[in-house]
Amino acid sequence: MYEGLLMFGVVFIAGYLFGTLSQTRNALDNRHALQAFLFVIFGIYFVWFWAKGQTLAMKTWNIRVVDRHGAPITQPRALLRYVLSWLWFLPPLAVSWALGLPGREAAVLALGWVPIWAILARFHPDRQFWHDAIAGTRLVTSLPAGKAPKAA
């Protein structure tokens, strides 16, 4: 949820930049080009931060993305993770497109798929999301420097 708030700012600035540079006057003009542009901008955002270990939201929640061995991930691996993370949304979007579903029905389909995809993580031996398993990454708890866990 917190990542979504941060991404709102990224989308706002990127959308404003795209609209200004393309001289788009109507929100529906250049819609597909804007979507492709945002896909690239999201990719830059996530690949950049994941290659450094964590996004701003992940830093707040003390979560870090690492490879299978606990080492920081490379930019190519972060890019692979980004592309594979679209498995959260790609199947319902493809079905919606193939069936020609209107926006509301596509949204319902997507909202139904996301919990199913999340539940599928329970079937992974390490209980991690499948895009992480395929990309060779995992999320770990990462305490800030100088902070030791409290003894019980």
Automatic annotation (TrEMBL):
GO terms for cellular component: plasma membrane. Keywords: Cell membrane, Membrane, Transmembrane, Transmembrane helix. The chain crosses the membrane at residues 5-21, 33-51, 78-100, 106-123. Residues 5-136 form the RDD domain. It is found in: Cell membrane. It is a multi-pass membrane protein. This is RDD family protein. The lineage of its organism: Bacteria, Pseudomonadati, Pseudomonadota, Betaproteobacteria, Burkholderiales.
